[in-house]
């Protein structure tokens, strides 16, 4: 028998904002100083986030990359609850734990994810973020009570009895659940189930937010996007001149622009100079991101950003061994903390993500933009055009919810 672990996530229609309010200035400075809600998570998995990004990017050179570090690291940490021996050591090692770590350290990690789940699920006006876990298990397989209790308590997981002896019905049950949780955006996550499968573990994340102020549709025009020096494509380029959070990272030769959503999350766009993308990618780490938030200043920018939609679909059983997680996908897997069956392994680990960025939110801009109509002194504008490959972060309380590279909008 095999255990399939599947991760499902969906990012839907973040809408672009351009004017920062004073309270967001204070909040962003505050976030730069204070530990995040998921600080216990960040401490243990900060290298995992960027190591995973680099592994995904190197596996598809020159292609778009988009995934949720929170979703993947949470799923890996949850899997560690049922792993034992060397399988467990590999998983926790990838999350930054030393072989000499204590049980208290592990508990600290899981409680950090629990706190993050509770925080991110708080409803906010103009902002929707649903994050959750669910286990589908065949009643013929006895799941360890300790594992069930842990995933329910620490990861707020739902559990469903599923007859995998009828793969067609099992597949429908799982896909119907995922379809509902992602508001119809992912319908056929699970494919080709057969009677050897006994469990499916799904992590989903659904994000939808309005930007504080949107771009005007009338300002969007077709412009060139330089995929490479030789390849140019036409894209709808949004534009607006306004105050943005801005930092010039001279050491890495890149421009960093921060744009807040309603609900106190922030989109961070990073534009490397020509030929500097790999240098920036290789330098990514948690300290660098925190530095950018500390160094942000409000600056008048004439900003050009493509309207784009990209997606990422990854077979993580082929990627995670590069980060040191390999046994769990082989006959060497020790998942005796999940079930007493000795011949269970993870056969597949699927991660899917979609992001759409457009001008939506201009109605809100009309209502709030008049506040800024009577600015007296205006800083000289700097023109920044995202017309070549760039990076995108979506950050809340210094937790990286999504991370990607737009290589070809």
UniProtKB/TrEMBL annotation:
Highest taxon in the source lineage: Eukaryota
Signal peptide: 1-18
InterPro entries, per database record: Serpin_CS, Serpin_dom, Serpin_fam, Serpin_sf, Serpin_sf_1, Serpin_sf_2
UniProt xrefs under Pfam families: Serpin (PF00079)
Record bears the keyword Cytoplasm: no
Keywords recorded for this protein, A-Z: Signal
Similarity field: Belongs to the serpin family.
Record's protein name: Plasma serine protease inhibitor
Lineage: Eukaryota, Metazoa, Chordata, Craniata, Vertebrata
């Amino acid at each position: 028998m095999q255990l399939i672990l599947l991760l499902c996530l969906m990012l839907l229609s973040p809408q672009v904002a351009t004017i920062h309010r004073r309270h967001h200035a204070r909040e962003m400075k505050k976030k730069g100083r204070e530990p995040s809600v998921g600080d216990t998570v960040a401490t243990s998995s900060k290298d995992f986030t960027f190591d995973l990004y680099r592994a995904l990017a190197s596996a598809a050179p020159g292609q778009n990359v988009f995934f949720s570090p929170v979703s993947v690291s949470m799923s890996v940490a949850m899997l560690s609850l049922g792993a034992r021996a060397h399988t467990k050591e590999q998983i926790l090692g990838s999350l930054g734990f030393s072989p000499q770590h204590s049980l208290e350290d592990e508990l600290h990690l899981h409680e950090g994810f629990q706190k993050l789940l509770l925080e991110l699920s708080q409803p906010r006006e103009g902002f929707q973020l649903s994050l959750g876990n669910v286990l589908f298990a065949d009643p013929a397989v006895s799941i360890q009570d300790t594992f069930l209790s842990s995933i329910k308590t620490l990861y707020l997981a739902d559990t469903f009895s599923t007859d995998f002896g009828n793969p067609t019905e099992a597949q429908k049950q799982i896909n119907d659940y995922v379809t509902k949780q992602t508001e119809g955006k992912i319908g056929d996550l699970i494919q080709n189930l057969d009677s050897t499968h006994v469990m499916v573990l799904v992590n989903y994340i659904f994000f939808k937010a309005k930007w504080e102020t949107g771009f005007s549709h009338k300002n969007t025009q077709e412009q060139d996007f330089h995929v490479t020096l030789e390849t140019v494509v036409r894209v709808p380029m949004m534009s607006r001149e306004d105050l943005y959070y801005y930092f010039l990272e001279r050491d890495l030769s890149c421009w960093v622009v921060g744009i807040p959503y309603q609900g106190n999350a922030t989109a961070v766009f990073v534009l490397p100079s020509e030929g500097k993308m790999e240098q920036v990618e290789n330098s990514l780490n948690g300290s660098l991101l925190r530095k950018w938030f500390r160094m942000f200043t409000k600056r008048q920018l004439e900003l050009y950003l493509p309207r784009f939609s990209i997606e990422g679909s990854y077979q993580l059983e082929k990627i995670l061994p590069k980060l040191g997680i390999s046994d769990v996908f082989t006959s060497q897997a020790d998942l005796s903390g999940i079930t007493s069956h000795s011949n269970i392994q993870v056969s597949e680990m699927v991660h899917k993500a979609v992001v759409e960025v457009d001008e939506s939110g201009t109605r809100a801009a009309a209502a709030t933009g008049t506040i800024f109509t009577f600015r007296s002194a205006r800083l000289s504008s700097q023109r920044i055009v995202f017309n070549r490959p760039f990076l995108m972060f979506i950050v809340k309380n210094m937790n990286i919810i999504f991370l990607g590279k737009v290589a070809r909008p």
